[in-house]
């Protein structure tokens, strides 16, 4: 398995943050299926203030590019992503259109 860690910010609005968390307590089945079908075996999202941190553990053949291509063809995933963008905002250093940013590991014990 390969592990990836990613970061993203939420809009700094307590009501929007509460809505975002509520959506993630009831993730649509089609979204869960698309995640598993892409080879992601474990995913967790943590929050501090309005900063999100995601940990993904994937099968060896997982590809962000392949996942993005599959998501682009999936109307339900596109609907979910559009809904989530209501709550999300890019990190200050994100490129245009970039959402979740891959983090670099700097220490391991």
Layout of strands and helices, then pairs:
Layout: E1 2-10, H1 14-24, H2 29-37, E2 40-48, E3 51-58, H3 64-72, H4 75-85, E4 88-89, E5 101-102
Antiparallel strand pairs: 1-3, 1-4, 1-5, 2-3
Protein name: L-fucose mutarotase
Pfam families: rhaM
Organism: Niabella ginsenosidivorans
Summarize this entry quickly.
The chain is of the alpha+beta class. It contains four helices and five strands. Strands 1, 2, 3, 4 and 5 form a five-stranded antiparallel beta sheet that branches.
Which tags fit this structure?
4 helices; Alpha-Beta Plaits; Carb_Metab_Mutarotase; about 110 residues; 5-stranded antiparallel β-sheet; Dimeric_a/b-barrel; alpha+beta
H and E order? EHHEEHHEE
The helix/strand class is: alpha+beta
CATH-scheme architecture: 2-Layer Sandwich
Largest sheet: number of strands, sense, barrel closure: 5 strands, antiparallel
- First CA to last CA: what distance? 18 Å
CATH topology title: Alpha-Beta Plaits
Q: What does this molecule look like?
A:
The chain has 4 helices and 5 strands; from the N terminus they run βααββααββ. The model has no long low-confidence stretch (mean pLDDT 96). Helices cover 37% and strands 28% of the residues. A hairpin with a 2-residue loop joins β2 and β3. It has 109 residues and is an alpha+beta fold. The chain has one domain: Dimeric alpha+beta barrel (Alpha-Beta Plaits, 2-Layer Sandwich), CATH 3.30.70.1090. Strands 1, 2, 3, 4 and 5 form a 5-stranded antiparallel sheet that branches. The longest helix has 11 residues. This is L-fucose mutarotase. It comes from Niabella ginsenosidivorans. GO terms for molecular function: racemase and epimerase activity, acting on carbohydrates and derivatives. InterPro entries: Carb_Metab_Mutarotase, Dimeric_a/b-barrel, Rham/fucose_mutarotase.
